[in-house]
Amino acid sequence: MSYRMKFTYTAWLVAFLLIGSLWPAVSYATHVRAGEITTRRLPGNSLTYEITLTVYFDEARGRDAARQQETVTFCFGDGTTQEVRRLPPTLLRGNPNTSINIYRTTHTYPGPGTFSISVAITNRNNGTINMLDPVNTSFYISTTISVNAALGLNSTPVLLNPPLDSARVGQRFCHNPAAFDADGDSLAYRLTIPQQGVPSNPCRGVVVNGYRDPARGINPNAQTEAQNAPATFTINPITGDLCWDAPGAAGQYNVAFIIEEWRNGVLIGEIIRDMQIVVTDNPNRRPQLQAPADLCVEAGTLINQTVTATDPDGHRLELTAFGGPFNRGPDGQPYPDALVAPQAATFTTPNQPQNSPATGTFRWQTNCSHIRQEPYDIVFRAVDFPGRNATQLATLQSFRITIIGPRPQNLAARPTASPTGGRAVQLTWSPYTCAPPGSLMLVYRREGCPPLQLSPCQTGLPPGSGYTEVGRVPSTATAFVDTLNLRRGIQYSYVIVAQYPLPQGGVSIASQPVCFNLPLLAPVLTNVTVDSTSETRGVITVRWTRPLGLNPGDLGAPYQYRLLRSTGLGTTTFTPVATITTTLTPGVADTLFVDRGLNTTQNAYTYQLEFYFTATNGQLTRLDATEPASSVRLSTTPALRQIQLSWQAQTPWSNDNQRHRVYRSRRGPNGPFNLIAEVAVQGPNTYVYTDTGSDTFLADGNTSLPLSADSSYCYRVETVGRYPDSRIPVGLLYNFSQIICASPIDTTRPCPPVLSLDPLDCAALTDESFCNQSSFSNNLRWRYPERDARNQLCDQTITSYNIYYSRYQEDERSERLTSVPAPVTTFEHSSLTSVAGCYYVTAVNRRGLESAPSNRVCNDNCPAYKLPNVFTPNGDGRNDVFQPLACPRFVETVEFVVYNRWGAKVFQTTDPNLNWNGKTTAGQDLASGLYYYQVTVRFASVSRNAPPLVQKGWIQLLRDGVSMR
Predict the structure, then answer these.
(1) Contact, 528 vs 735, CB < 8 A?
(2) What digits encode the pLDDT tens for the residues 920-940?
(3) Could you write out the DSSP letters of every residue in 891-958?
(4) 643 and 562 belong to one structural domain
(5) Each residue of 671-686: pLDDT tens digit?
(6) Are both 340 and 255 inside the same structural domain?
């Protein structure tokens, strides 16, 4: 999840000493302001985690309670708890009225699973105006982790920006937690509601009482800073930018948000942060901050950037920065466990506030240990010093740095021998040292050598580059042998890319491509042409060149050609058909073979030629073999007064971008054949020609006449090809297909009918319309198009209609229900359990030809499921059971859950009729009172993926002799 976004934070009040004067005196029991739980899996045991609770206590109004909070109880989510002591507390930098309190322990889980770690502390500090009675509301926080050995060492994100902030009434405010994940996992953000503990179960939390949305829950008329829309309170799911535009009332607020941790597309954990915002109403203008533009650099680059801030009121400014690369916690002290490998980044500013404009220098010497797929986020903050009686404001901007792996160097290619014999390419490159253990070097190949266009921060190979992976080796390797389907006469391009292991993941910049041509030391095929078409006496002539680049005497003579044949187009089950021994003497005819006795009527044939030389031990040794080449296979498709021809061949030469020749005989397969067209062929899917009887090539006579269904016409095609490799100087290559004969069609095909379906009028139905009805019908009607100016080709001799049905509209295939004779144009589909379904109709003429499908029409059910809001389970026989109101319609499944007023689940069932008798699921009677329910109903619908109906409501349960009629 890597996105680029620049954001500005405003209305940051850092002088909490000033705000302390706004709070009334309260009990010493109030002290918790904010906090979160983080975890880290320890090396050596995949089930043991270090768990840290970081909470912020109110030292101004709850000093005694803060001092007494020496221990808290951790709930580990596996049924166990532990009392954990506090580490020595520290005061928050720049805010002596707030202390940072850390409770840390280790815990070993019994096995893999998902666990929710939680802590409840009594009580929150007083004065929070967007919840009821905060002084008597406990602080509850939780974090969820996935314990899975396959994840490797894993830490939740750490939050480096303290969760205490201040804002100004009417001015846009933003906060960012400066979350950093040391493992490079992706983070996503969403809002939630602060929670409080349940007195009867300290390991369970519920939403705080009376929570109100900060944006308009206190001041319903609050507006944005621009005064052009209602106020909003949102969080950016990608950057974590928590923005309030704009506070409408002064006071103390608590809010919460969730940070999700994703790895390789899987959610592996989430943190809840509960934070506090204090809003005041003092005039001041926020500073202006200029952060560097986002960077993408190769590992090893020194990053040196200047940050500048100005204040429109001329106030002094302080610049600070947060982020994982600094290896510092929210208190500004070195982080206990290094977040990034040395060297860490630095941000240098004067020790005292600066006059405007203020500057700071960000410096980071990157190295290979800093490579990861996700970018590093740096948050710069500029805060002003307006004086004792004014609220300080701050502006934040982010700076995103992506550190990528360097390009592999010095890739080279040369021919070599395959370990199993045959063609091979040896690739070599310089040692690649910028990769952690477990990294791989990926080898890619493509045909041709076009330039590789890469954007400045492009890692790996972009989509559509044409490269395919052909191998992978450890990143410590410096060589690779490619033996995968290499073809003679083809120019290849190779690149290599380093791939890093998870969790950091990602790949390096691709190497510079290297181009390579296989040396031509073997013959190449030039012709596989059909001379005679017959089931038993077919003839094909095969031609080839002598070995290109090989001179007599280069290898031991005599030499030998071995011609192999396989039946079929592009098949590879070869058998020998000819052996020709030669000395490569000039003028000797040794590059042609006429293959006889073939069934060229039914089959195409594929040939391959092997070349042997005499080794020093006197044995014939195979040097190489040509690429297979097939004969041209022609096929016909008769149509209305025309015949479509299509042909194909699988050859090492290309038949594209040439003009193929089409020949026709009106007197049978023995000819004469006339050239009737030259077809411009652009690509492999354009080997087609439609013969309507015309003759566009008149040099051998004009044979143009309309085609008749009473006659048979015979064809053959001559393809024209060329080797794309300029080192094969054989010119154009001409090859004939077999002869094939066909007749056109003289009858038009039926046109598709026009279908309609009687719909179900849901609005006209009453609740009792379908009661006790278990069988339904759909009535279809259609009409067949009459022949007119638009439908001249519609055959009117229709003998029957086929009706097709599918239960769901998403179904790609429909089953044929039945066939009805013409002229019937109606059909009743009966004995259905519901009316949901889709239909189409086709017409069939007297020749048995079926039309294309008609329009597809669908019917859907009219679902209904209504619930009462009161029942009296008092045993009087009247209204003793809570059930749906009269006649639910087309219900497939039901999930019904009942809660009491405290949110505890008391009853659930999947019975469509519910039949709740006022007892809990365990069979205990429930007291009279108001209960809340949620029911999820899935109906039989025409859509397989139709969403369920989810209803929420209340139920009045009455006992004590009350009855209802």
Answers:
(1) yes
(2) 999 999 999 999 999 999 999
(3) EEEEEEEEE-TTS-EEEEE--TT--B-SB-TTSPBPPSEEEEEEEEEEE--SSTTPPPEEEEEEEEE-
(4) no
(5) 999 999 999 998 877 8
(6) no
